[in-house]
Design brief:
Blueprint lengths: L1 H18 L10 H14 L12 E2 L26 E6 L2 H5 L36 E12 L24 E3 L2 E16 L11 E7 L4 E5 L2 H7 L22
Antiparallel strand pairs: 1-2, 2-3, 3-5, 4-5, 5-6, 6-7
C-alpha cells in the first residue's frame, strides 16, 4: 500500500511539473539598456586592449546616427566616408580564437606594448543585464600615414591612445592610421529568446562626445549583421576562427 502511495505521489508531481508554464525571457528595459551601453563605453579600454592591433576599414553602412540629422560632408566614394576600427570584446578569446599567452597566435599582437595581453582579465563593470558577450568597435576617421597628425581625444579616458602601437590599414599601396575618434558601435548579447533583440543581440552607437545616439534594433546594424548568420558575428578578417556565443 505504501509503495502504491509513493507511485501516486510521484505521478502527481510529474503532472504538476509538466503543466507549469514555461519561463519567458523578460524584455529589456530601455533605461537599463542605455545604462549598460554607457557602462561598456566607459570601461572597454580596461578590457585588456583590442582583440588585435591591426587597423581595418569598416563597411560604409556603419554610420553613427547623429542626435540631430545632418548631411555628410564626405565623398561617399572616398576613404574618408569610411572608418578605421579596432574591436574590443568582453570575452576576447571566444570572439577572436586567440591564445593570448602566445605572441604568435591569432591576429597581430604587441606583447611589449604595455597591454595585459597574456593575462587578458578584463575589468568589466556591473551590468544591469545578463550579457554573455559585449563587443565594442572603436572607430576613427582614416588618416593617411605621414600626414598631419590629429589631436586624438577620447570622452571616456584621458590617457594617450595607442596610436604608435598599431599596424596601419593598407589600401592601394597606401597606409592609413587613426585620425579623429568618431565614436563606438556596440553589440550586447543576451538570451536568444529575449523579446526586442536580434537573436539575442542588441545594437548601440555612441558619439565621439560620449552621448548614446541609438540603441536597440538599429535597422542598418540588423540588416548588415544578419548576413553573418544566426550568431550575427563576422569575426576578424584573416583569422581562421568563427566567433562563438553562449546561449
Amino acid at each position: 500500500m505504501k509503495s502504491l502511495y509513493s507511485v501516486f505521489a510521484l505521478l502527481s508531481l510529474i503532472s504538476v511539473l509538466s503543466c507549469a508554464a514555461p519561463v519567458e525571457a523578460v524584455e529589456l528595459s530601455p533605461q537599463e539598456l542605455e545604462s549598460d551601453v554607457l557602462a561598456a563605453a566607459s570601461s572597454y579600454l580596461q578590457w585588456g586592449g583590442p582583440v588585435d592591433f591591426q587597423l581595418r576599414f569598416g563597411p560604409t553602412l556603419c554610420m553613427i546616427p547623429p542626435l540631430e540629422p545632418r548631411f555628410s560632408e564626405s565623398d561617399p566614394s572616398g576613404p574618408h566616408a569610411e572608418k578605421l576600427y579596432f574591436v574590443h570584446a568582453a570575452d576576447a578569446p571566444s570572439y577572436a580564437g586567440v591564445d593570448y599567452g602566445s605572441a604568435s597566435e591569432g591576429g597581430f599582437l604587441m606583447p611589449d606594448s604595455g597591454w595585459d595581453l597574456e593575462g587578458r582579465s578584463p575589468s568589466l563593470p556591473e551590468f544591469e543585464g545578463d550579457w554573455s558577450q559585449v563587443l565594442v568597435k572603436e572607430a576613427f576617421a582614416p588618416l593617411l600615414s605621414g600626414g598631419e597628425a590629429s589631436e586624438l581625444s577620447h570622452p571616456f579616458d584621458d590617457s594617450e591612445l595607442f596610436v604608435n602601437e598599431v599596424l596601419p590599414a593598407e589600401r592601394d599601396g597606401e597606409e592609413w592610421v587613426p585620425g579623429d575618434f568618431v565614436g563606438l558601435y556596440l553589440m550586447l548579447r543576451t538570451s536568444r529568446e529575449t523579446p526586442g533583440t536580434d537573436e539575442g543581440w542588441v545594437y548601440a552607437t555612441v558619439q565621439a562626445d560620449g552621448a548614446v545616439s541609438a540603441y536597440g534594433q538599429i535597422s542598418s546594424c540588423v540588416a548588415c549583421h544578419r548576413r553573418a548568420g544566426p550568431d550575427r558575428m563576422f569575426g576578424l578578417p584573416g583569422v581562421d576562427h568563427e566567433p562563438t556565443v553562449v546561449d
